[in-house]
């Protein structure tokens, strides 16, 4: 049972409504996570601005793979359903790549380096080793790209934490529990 209920459209704060309407139009429905997050116009609009700008970082397959890895580490089942759905339908990742991303890897070596690095960043709270830093750089990522990876980790962690705390009802197709993959 959700700790914070997803808002019905008539109860969405006026300052959250334009942002929520854009997501609803783009997705085709209003995800419970967003209807919950919209409770705070300040937090929701700040996240949405961050999300919007971070869609320009890296490529969609790498972004979704990072989202999967971070959500797995943070134990956010809601986000795992969202990222599994978007990875499959928007990034066009096959099921085996989605599972690899959840485990912190990818068949593409460059994307794999980014996902492994992102996983290390979340697991170590950013206190990565010199070897981890060298590996992502050696894979072809610039310093700017590396900072973008950390930005994605932070952005996905925010939604993970909100969803783990609020426990919204899942409205995306379920995924296999982590222990089973």
Automatic annotation (TrEMBL):
Keyword Membrane: no
Transmembrane portions of the chain: none
Organism annotation: Danxiaibacter flavus
Record-linked InterPro entries: AhpD-like, AhpD_core, CMD-like, Uncharacterised_peroxidase-rel
Protein name, UniProt field: Peroxidase-related enzyme
NCBIfam families membership: ahpD_dom, peroxid_rel
Entry keyword Oxidoreductase: yes
Keywords in alphabetical order: Oxidoreductase, Peroxidase
